[in-house]
Amino acid sequence: MSERIKELSQEYFRSGTLAGLPSQLFIAGQWQDAENGDVLDVYDPSSASVFTRVSAASESDVGRAVSAANQAFHNVWKVMKPSLRGRILAKAADLLEQQAERFAVVEALDSGKPLAEAEGDVASSIATLRYYAGCADKIQGDSFPLGQDAFSFSSLEPVGVTAHIIPWNFPLATTLRGVAPALAAGCTAVVKPAEQTPLTALMLAEVFQEAGLPDGVYNVVNGTGVAAGAPLVSDPSVRHVTFTGSVNTGVSVMQAAANNITSVTLELGGKSPIVALADCDLEKTAEGVLWAIFYNAGQICSAGSRLVVERSVHGALVEKIVEKVAALKPEHALHNPNYGAINSAQQLDKIDGFVSRAKTRGIKIACGGTRCLSSEGQGWFYAPTIMDEVPLDDELVQEEIFGPVLSVQVVDSVEEAIEAANCTRFALAAGIYTQNITHALRLSQGIDAGQITVNDYWAGGIEVPFGGNKMSGIGREKGLEALRSYCCTKAVTMAF
Ligand code: NAD
Question: Domains of the chain (ranges plus CATH)?
Answer without folding.
Answer: 3-268+473-492 (3.40.605.10), 273-461 (3.40.309.10)
